[in-house]
TrEMBL record:
One of its GO terms (biological process) is signal transduction. It comes from Flavobacterium fluviale. Gene3D superfamilies: P-loop containing nucleotide triphosphate hydrolases, Toll/interleukin-1 receptor homology (TIR) domain. InterPro entries: AAA+_ATPase, P-loop_NTPase, TIR_dom, Toll_tir_struct_dom_sf. It holds the Pfam family TIR_2. This is ATPase. Residues 35-158 form the AAA+ ATPase domain. SUPFAM superfamilies: P-loop containing nucleoside triphosphate hydrolases, Toll/Interleukin receptor TIR domain. The lineage of its organism: Bacteria, Pseudomonadati, Bacteroidota, Flavobacteriia, Flavobacteriales.
Length: 494
């Protein structure tokens, strides 16, 4: 019997020759047999969640009515929202439930609790989602956790991937010379292993089974390059859209680019943003800016190209890759080259702040405007009101001293007639005065001050804020020049 390559190493649909029971399969069988009790199956894409459910139902010979719905199909969403109004609906499987609106998730959560309490024998709800998707559902109804089964599909162990490849070798009567390398590159994903194995066979012109055994002759580097080149046509535009965010800020801190880069190193295909920011304090301000103000959520919601590859749960601040091919693509790009290609100037940041603002309270309006305009450009700024919650209960001098002394690339000093009169500006200037010789202090002189005032600062290049001109235009001019200065500094480090 002729067996075709595309039927052996399948990159979509349920495998015919290469299905391998994942570690969680037995637990899945028991849960499916349990009447009424809801089931949540969560884990990364491409590791066999949906395939395992289909195989388990087939193996058990379940003759109950089975309805499969997708949270990505508009016509199915209408049915999903109506589910709590039905009774005796058999088994309903909702795939990608994590993309449902929060109100629909809450309704499903309440309904699963009701089914469990009633010990329903004629209705069972199965929800399939990405890694940690069940956490958001339980957050709506904390007591739901004791009324449902949650099965977490982890990345498959190497022996499972190897077993799958061996089944494919047997079906095609071949030996894959880079099988161990494919196991390693798949990172626990059946889907990626299928993709790499299929490309290996195509590269060696093996498209069906043979009567005599054949062995492939290629390298993993060749196969990875071919696969990533092919994937790049689809995924480069998506990666670029996400990395840039709403607008390219080449002088900024590239918060979206960093999130994507962190995802590429994630072992479970998702990142908990708050945890990573504790490990990367230099990016904390710029990334908190796009997360807390809803920019990250809006970026994904407004871009259909992103919605099938990446998901953000704003309840748990978890960012997750949904498409295993997209993850493989970003894991195998040259990040410095990618950043440069899309227009960023440097992606390594050694200090928490790009600018620290020093000013008298009377000039807060200008300081606030400079701060907000710099933040819009994804530039990290120390401005006291941004960090009031952190300063609270701290020793203020201990908190501020290192910021002005060394933790900002530049200190922007707003020099008005009020500046010398304030206790805190005197303290701040004591911290940064030694930095004048390092070319990291940028004075901004008010146009109405005596030219002899702050004469020491006149030895260095600065800017004049013209009080008699339009405030918005003046502040925008200043921010544009500051941004250009920062861009030039980033270029020096390349």
């Amino acid at each position: 019997m002729k067996i075709f390559l595309e039927d052996v190493f399948k990159t979509s649909g349920t495998p015919t020759y290469t299905f391998v029971k994942p570690v969680e399969y037995t637990k899945l069988l028991v849960s499916l047999r349990t009447k009424g009790r809801g089931l949540i199956i969560e884990g990364p894409s491409g590791i066999g969640k949906t395939t395992s459910i289909n195989k388990a139902i087939e193996e058990m010979g379940i003759n109950t009515q089975i309805t499969s719905l997708s949270a990505r199909k508009k016509e199915d969403i209408d049915l999903i929202q109506l589910l709590p109004e039905f009774s005796d609906f058999g088994i309903v499987i909702v795939d990608d439930f994590h993309v449902l609106p929060n109100e629909t998730k809450k309704a499903l959560s309440d309904y699963m609790k009701t089914l469990a309490d009633e010990d329903s024998i004629s209705s069972k709800l199965i929800l399939i989602g990405i890694n940690k998707a069940g956490d958001s559902l339980v957050s709506f109804s904390p007591d739901l956790n004791n009324r449902i089964d949650t099965i977490r599909f982890e990345a498959n162990p190497s022996e499972k991937i190897e077993e799958m490849l061996s089944l494919g070798e047997k079906a095609l009567n071949i030996t894959i010379n880079i099988k161990s390398e494919i196991v390693n590159e798949s990172k626990g994903s059946f889907h990626i292993a299928q993709l790499l194995a299929k490309e290996t066979c195509i590269n060696c012109e093996i498209i069906d089974n043979h009567s005599h055994k054949l062995e492939t002759d290629t390298s993993i580097e060749t196969i990875k390059a071919k696969v990533n080149q092919e994937l790049g046509r689809l995924f480069y535009p998506k990666a670029r859209i996400f990395a840039i965010g709403s607008k390219l800020r080449k002088e900024g801190r590239a918060p979206y680019l960093h999130l994507l880069n962190w995802l590429s190193y994630s072992s479970d295909w998702s990142i908990q943003i708050d945890e990573l920011l504790n490990q990367n304090p230099n990016m904390k301000l710029s990334i908190n800016q796009v997360v807390e103000k809803g920019f990250l959520k809006k970026l994904i919601e407004d871009n259909p190209l992103l919605q099938d590859v990446i998901h953000f749960d704003d309840q748990s601040n978890v960012l997750t890759i949904e498409d295993p091919k997209f993850l493989f693509y970003i894991r195998n790009i040259l990040w410095n080259k990618f950043a440069e290609q899309i227009g960023f100037v440097g992606i390594e940041f050694t200090k928490p702040y790009d600018f620290a603002l020093s000013f008298a309270g009377e000039n807060r309006t200008l300081a606030e405007r400079i701060n907000s305009k710099l933040l819009e450009r994804e530039i990290s700024v120390f401005y006291d009101e941004n960090e009031q919650h952190r300063i609270l209960a701290s020793n203020i001098e201990d908190y501020l001293a290192p910021i002005y002394n060394s933790e900002a690339n530049f200190v922007v000093v707003i020099l008005s007639k009020d500046y010398p009169k304030k206790i805190w500006t005197k303290f701040e200037s004591e911290q940064f005065k030694q930095r004048f010789g390092e070319n990291t202090i940028i004075p901004i002189w008010f146009s109405d001050i005596d030219t002899n005032l702050f004469d020491e600062s006149r030895k260095y290049g600065g800017l004049t804020f013209h009080i008699d001109k339009d405030f918005e235009k003046e502040s925008e001019r200043i921010v544009s020049i500051l941004s250009k200065k920062l861009e030039d500094k980033r270029k020096e480090r390349q």
